[in-house]
Amino acid sequence: MSKQRILSGMRPSGKLHLGHLHGALANWISLQDDYECFYFSADWHALTSEYADTSAIENNTVEMITDWIAAGIDPERCTLFIQSRVREHAELFLLFSMITPLGWAERCPTYKEQQEQVSGRDLSTYGFLGYPILQAADILIYRAHKVPVGEDQRPHVEMTREIARRFNNFYGDVFPEPGELLTQFPRVPGTDGRKMSKSYDNSLYLSDTPEQIDRKIRTMITDPARQRRKDPGDPDICPVYDLHRIYSEHETLMWAAEGCRSAGIGCLQCKAPLIEKVNQGLDPIRTRRAELLADPSIVRGILERGNQRANQVAGDTMRVVRQAIKIG
After folding, report:
1. In Å, how far are 252, 272, 278 from 241, measured between CA atoms?
2. CB hemisphere CA count around 272 (13 angstroms)
3. From CA 11, how far away is CA 15, in angstroms rounded?
4. Of 158, 182, 203, 290, whose CB has the highest number of CB atoms within 10 Å?
5. How many CB atoms lie within 10 A of CB 262?
6. What is the DSSP letter of 153?
7. CA dihedral 6, 282, 202, 235 (to 10 degrees)
8. CA nearest 128: which of 152, 108, 146, 151?
9. Distance of alpha carbon 210 from alpha carbon 193, whole angstroms
């Protein structure tokens, strides 16, 4: 390979919001010139929590991939595919499950966190316990050199390295030990001040119209100390100002901060240039998205080609794996 290979994916939750754009997609887009990129819809991972109702997963996958491409992921430079269309993920997951100590899965930080935080679903399943092992299979089936992650995902990549090391100790040098491409994901606030999330109904979507963006930002909460127009505020605790940090130039940032602290401007005045900037950023995405939705065969064709490419690479890896373990 002339370039190092990276692997990353998202669970198909449908249309994407600004948190996805600035938290992951912008980084993926920046990597696609310098690495051989494999990006996938993690539909099997979706089953770890959505196993009781799978009706939306297929449509959510198409919606998500459409947003990826509209945002700037180039299918000519990246392999875009669906996890469940590459059965070698499951085969390698099975083999890794045979050699991974139970304690490794149980100590994963997000295992207990999500069990505590996710309500309304029974997560006491083998699939949920084992999802870090499936993640290891996702990465190692492509023998990826790097995985772009935030700080909170580093334990998953470390566990992948441990599984690769354990496999190699048993069966020979088959897998590289992948490293992290550590990225600083900005915290993108939702309209209620919490982290932007589809489950909180507080999101600004890539597919929102200019009118929807205008309405959502106009009603977005600000510093609660600003009860009246004349009350000074603190931009450092204002979710609107957090969005300004992502979208606005230095001059606008200084204007908004000073106007907030002195009560020289009202909250709606502060929001007006932000609305304009967000819509300017989304305009090309909306245009490209409309083109893709007008001809569904475009995204289907991209995924078919990506699935074929992923199957080829994964198949090559599994032939080496089967030879190493002397089964199959």
Report:
1. 10, 12, 13
2. 6
3. 11
4. 203
5. 10
6. G
7. 100
8. 108
9. 21
89-101: b (≥16 Cβ within 10 Å) or e: bebbbebbbeebe
Q: pTM of the predicted model, to two decimals?
A: 0.93
Q: Which helix (H) or strand (E) holds 7?
A: strand 5-10
Residue 77 contacts residue 37 (beta carbons within 8 Å): yes
Q: Do β-strands 78-82 and 146-149 pair in parallel, antiparallel, or remain unpaired? A: unpaired
Tokens for 174?
């088959």
Q: Hunting for tokens 């948190």 — which residue is that?
A: 19
Q: Write the CA distances from 202 to 25, 191, 196, 218, 274, integer angstroms.
A: 19, 5, 6, 13, 17
**Euclidean distance between CA atoms 232 and 81, whole angstroms:** 50
Residue-level pLDDT, tens digit, the chain, 328 residues? 589 999 999 999 888 999 999 999 999 999 999 999 999 999 999 998 889 899 999 999 999 999 999 999 999 999 999 999 999 999 999 999 999 999 999 887 766 666 555 666 778 888 888 999 999 999 999 999 999 988 888 899 999 999 999 999 999 999 999 999 987 777 899 999 999 998 889 999 999 999 999 999 999 999 998 989 999 999 999 999 999 999 999 999 999 999 999 999 999 999 999 999 999 999 999 999 999 999 999 999 999 999 999 999 999 999 999 999 999 7
d(CA 203, CA 194): 10
The dihedral formed by the CA atoms of 61, 66, 72 and 73, expressed in degrees to the nearest 10: 40
Would you say the C-alpha torsion 309, 313, 318, 320 has a positive or negative sign? positive
Q: Which residues have CB under 8 Å from 107's CB, separation 6+? A: none
- Indicate the SS3 state at residue 300: helix
